[in-house]
Structure formats: structure tokens, C-alpha cells
Amino acid sequence: MKSKELFAKSVSFLLLAILLCSSLLLVSCKSKDRKYNEEEVAEAARDLIFRSILLNEIYYGYGIPVLNDLSEANGNYYPADPAFLRKNGFTTVEELKRMTEAVFTRALCESIYQTKFSSVSDGDGIKSFSRYYQKYDDAAQTVPVTIMVNTDAEVFLIDRVIYDFESLTVEGAEGEKVYVRMNAKAENAEGEVQESILRVALIEEENGWRLDSPTYRRYNPDLERYNDLKNK
């Protein structure tokens, strides 16, 4: 009888210890949410989201305008319009990448580069060609000439997006990420406007805050129908 009581007490003690450890683990995990200065995050978010608008257009929208010069074309690739490049502060792929890395995290940049500066392929062959590549004036690729633009690339963003920067608020931290939210509107070619909440994650890297999630929006004709069905 005593051995059974001793066994029962041991099991109870073990269960209590497991419960205590689990509670401590939960508290420990929660305490890992990073601390931040709300004003600093909000200011960085507004600046980064504003700068992301041009990058969204370059990577997902209609892209860099081109010169319709057949003599300089390479298949579907045409030279970028130098006036557009100068206006926006870059003339080479390397400079465009530096602009991108000043806005997005390393992980997000890598994801962009894999599809926009490299062709995407699988076992059946190439699924999509790179959107941009650097043209050089020498075989050693030391003298950049211009950015070549794939005029056959898919245009993902066709709508105008209106960002309400005044509505931006800092939502809170989840681990190393700090989230902000703001109102945004997507306006399609017919002038129809769709409002939504844009929720964006930021991570502080060694060179400052960077966006860790996309900031674009598309007009979704099925969204209202979906919301109606969800609210029924």
C-alpha cells in the first residue's frame, strides 16, 4: 500500500513539475518579443513603405520602361529607358539591388532576386525568364552598359494603390518582428475602389529597420462576395 502511495505521489510530483516547466516555457517564449520604440518604428515604417512603392512597380507592376530600339534588343529584352533610371537614382542592377536592400530584409530580397534576376525552372524546363539582367560592354563583365528588361514579363500589379500614411499605427511585436497596420485602397482601371488593411512586418537588421513582408495591394473583385458569404 505504501509503495502505491509513494508511486502516486511521485507521478503527481512529476506532473506538477511538467506543468511548472511548461508555464515557465510559455513565459520565457513570450518574453522574447522584442522591445522597441514606437515612434521610431512608425517613422521607419512610413519611410520604408513609401520607398517600397517604386520597387513594387519595378518588380511586380509594369516594370522599368524601355527604349523601343530593335538594334539594341535581345529577343524580348530591351534596354531600360535611361531617363527613368536617372530620375530614380540607379543605372545598374547592382545599384537597384542596393536600393532594394535599403528597404527590404535580406530574406525578402533573396526571394525577389530569385525570380526577378534569375529564370525560374523545374523538371519540365524554364517556367519564367528573369525580368532583368545587366548588359556589359566587355567579356569580363566589368563595364556595365544598361539594364535589359524582359518586355514579355507578367504584370502582377495593374491597379493604383493609395496609402493612408496618417492611419499607420504600431500593432506590436511578435518575436523579432514588429507589425504596423494602415489603411490602403486599390483602384482598378474602371475607377472602382477597394479598401483594406495593410499589415506589414519590420525587422531591425544591422543597418536599420527593414520591411519583411510585401506592401502591395490588388483590387480583388471577389473580395466583397467572400466577405458577404463569411458574414452570413
Would you summarize the structure shown here?
With 232 residues, the chain is α+β, with helices and mostly antiparallel strands.
Structural class determined from secondary elements: alpha+beta
Q: Unreliable runs, pLDDT <50, ≥5 residues? A: 6-11, 23-29
DSSP summary, beta strand count = 9
Approximately what portion of the residues adopt beta-strand conformation? 25-35%
Oligomer: single chain
Would you tell me the overall average pLDDT? 87
Largest sheet: 4 strands, antiparallel
- Measured on Cα atoms, how large is the radius of gyration? 25 Å
End-to-end distance, in Å? Answer: 61 Å
Instruction: Count the DSSP helices.
Output: 6
In one word, what is the shape? globular
Q: SSE string, helix = H, strand = E?
A: HHEHHHEEEEEEEEH
User: Which range best describes the helical content: under 10%, 10-25%, 25-40%, 40-55%, 55-70% or over 70%?
Assistant: 25-40%
Strand order of the largest sheet: 6-7-8-9
